[in-house]
Amino acid sequence: MPIYVAGNGPKSARLAGEIGDGWITTPANLANPELHDAFRDGALYVGKDPTAMPIILEDFIVVGGEAEANEAATFWRFAPIGFKQLLYIPDPREIERRAMETLPSPYQVWQDWLVSMDPADHIKHIQGLWDLGATHVFVHSGNQDQMRMIDFYGQQVLPNLTT
Questions:
Q1: Same domain? 74 vs 149
Q2: Tens digits of per-residue pLDDT, 61-70?
Q3: Number of domains composing the chain
Q4: pTM
Q5: Which listed residue, 6, 53, 92, 111, has the most CB atoms within 10 A of its CB?
């Protein structure tokens, strides 16, 4: 069974290459040469081919506009700061309070997400992640209407991607 290691800093990215069968990270981290090199160096250090190892991304998207993004942000307000500031807080009420305090505007939550109703934007975005080196992209939808998002991707985005 493959074991994938999440890594968002140089040490953990290198560790993902050394001990993992693949790397789980974010689009911004994959685009960071220091982190990508750390993953590659870790794999090479133990004799693995980093180009044969999966790189898995989780990417937040919203199928819609600002209203849908603002709605999604109410449920995912902690996401941009979670691992940095909230990881060791056991009380979800305190997590929510700190997230609201740190990110009072919904835009601060979704500013790095793809928010669009245009299939071409989603196709270009996913294609760009593959071009960075991702082998798997987990689309994390903030949409409340999940069937709308699934239908949109199934009918208008996935059939138009090229690998």
A1: yes
A2: 999 999 999 9
A3: 2
A4: 0.86
A5: 53
